[in-house]
Amino acid sequence: MKRWLAAYAVAFFAFLHLPLLTLAIFSFNSSRFTVWQHFSLTWYRAMFHDPQLVDAAWNSIVIALLATVISTVLGTFCAYALWKKNSRLLTGSLYLSLVTPEIVTGVSLLALFQWTFRWMHWHLGLYTVVLAHIAFSLAYVVIVVSARLRTVAPSLEEAAMDLGASEWQAFFYVMLPTLAPGIIAAALLVLTISFDDYVITSMVAGVNSETLPMVIYAMARRGASPVINAISALVTVVFGAVILMFERMRAI
Amino acid sequence: MTPILEVRNLIKDFPGHRAVAEISFSIPQGSFFSLLGPSGCGKTTTLRMIAGFEQPTSGEVLLKGENVNQRRPYQRNVSTVFQNYALFPHLSARGNIEFGLKRQQAGNMAKRVQEAIKLVGLAGKEDRRPAQLSGGERQRVALARSLVLEPDVLLLDEPLAALDPKLRKQMRVELKAMQRRVGISFLLVTHDQEEALSMSDYVAVMNEGKIEQIGSPEEIYLRPRTRFVAGFLGAVNWIGDVGVRPESTRIGSHPERNGAHSCSATVTDSVFLGDRIQVRVQLATGQEAIAQVTRGSTAFRPGEAVHLCWNASDELTFS
Amino acid sequence: MKLRSWFLLPAWLWMALLFAAPFLIIMAYSFLTRGVYGGVEHPWTAESYQRLVDPLYLEVFLRSFVMAVVATVLCLLFAFPAALFIARAPRHKNLYLQLVILPFWTSFLVRTYAWMFLLRDTGLINTALLKIGLIHAPLPLLYNDGAVLLGLVYGYLPFMVLPIYATLERLDPSLPEAAADLGARPLTTVFTVLVPLSRPGIIAGAVLVFIPCLGAYLTPDLLGGGRTVMVGNLVENQFTNARDWPFGSAVSILLMALVTLMLWLFLRRQSEQLV
Question: Among B237, B254, C195, C200, which has the highest number of CB atoms less than 10 A from its own CB?
Answer without folding.
Answer: B237
